[in-house]
Amino acid sequence: MRYITADDVDDLVVGAGVLGSGGGGDWYAPRQMLIAAIERHGPVPLVDPADLDPAARLLPIISGGAPPVLIEMIPGTRESALLRATVEDALHERCSAVLPLQMGPVNAVIPVVVAAQLGLPCVDADAMLRCFPMVEMTLFTLAGLSPSPLVVVDAMGAAAVLSAPDNNTVSAMLRSCLPHMGLVALGSAYRITAGECARIAPRGGVSRCLRIGRTFREAQSDPDGVGDEQLRDCLDAIGGVLLFTGFVAELFQRTTDGFPRGVLSIESSEDPSSVLRVDFQNENLVVARDGIVLATVPDLIVLLDLDTGTVMQTVDVVVGQRLHVIGAPVGDRWHTGAGTALVGPRAFGYDIDPVRVGA
């Protein structure tokens, strides 16, 4: 059996940053939490859902709220225990393992923390294949499972069970609860068994995140920046392509509905008349060169600092920074009609058709 140890923490964090596609929250507090949890409770078993009893109930985990507040209100063992007890009371069953719902810098790491705190294994699967901002944007929803009821708990001991007739309302109800829960809550959505998880969610998702993170971390080790060889390794790790290289000429950003939204303009290193535009809402969603769309959500759009190898979040990008812009595919299931309706550009308000990386 594979275990997640202290040596794996940075790989997990960096890999989640890549799959975060520019979003997913700040990684610092979750990283510190996981290091502390492993030191206190020991390494976390990583299990294939197919190796569990198919009827075993899972505890899907998602952390919701404002990333800056997470630093001050880090969820602890009490919240994890309360969440588990509330879910098990609603299900009238015991939960056998923890399941990450989102591969972003916060929500790939927090479930492993919860697993360590509860003494449960972590399921090696991926419900999104990347990071999306809404709890209903999963392959489980695409397969017909509802995220409702959603159970949320906070640091003061409050717990709520949110049930809604449609998927979009679940996320709206969660956001309405957060101001009353200190702007941070630990949650669990989807009533799912290990058998359903093995059938729907690609297995090996956490292991894949670790492999990606290890490759991108190695690209950071060269003091001269990201060279051609390191870049090729990074592209190979995610099956990606280099879309553009240049420096940030302009950045417009605002926060609405709790999300950073904006536009990034990057001038080409080789041709100053060529400009790449990146539209983002938390995650990077649309990338266009000189007015021609090169890639859109659901595919990954990753910003890699040319000088340091750092995978950049949109909120941390600055004018003058030199960046590689990388695109990577997420698989065919998100590129069905139902998939793009749920997570394609129109789901985020862009009136354009989806464009696959390399199309």
List descriptors.
single chain, 359 residues, alpha+beta, 2 domains, 8-stranded antiparallel sheet, 16 strands, globular
Question: Can you give a write-up of this model?
Answer:
The chain has 359 residues and is α+β, with helices and mostly antiparallel strands. It folds into 2 domains: 2-206, CV3147-like fold (3-Layer(aba) Sandwich), CATH 3.40.1610; 224-348, no CATH class. It is 30% helix and 27% strand. A hairpin with a 1-residue loop joins β11 and β12. α1 crosses α9 (205-219) and α9 (205-219) runs antiparallel to α10. The model has no long low-confidence stretch (mean pLDDT 92).
The share of residues in extended strands comes to 25-35%
Which series of helices and strands comes N to C?
A: EHHEEHHEHEHEEHEHHHEEEEEEEEH
What's the CATH H-level homologous superfamily of the largest domain? CV3147-like domain
Biggest sheet descriptor: 8 strands, antiparallel
In the sheet with the most strands, the strands line up as 13-12-11-10-9-16-14-15
- Residue stretches low in confidence (pLDDT < 50, at least 5 long) are none
Q: Write the CATH fold name of the largest domain.
A: CV3147-like fold
| Secondary structure tally, helices | 11
Distance between the termini: 39 Å
- The count of β-strands is 16
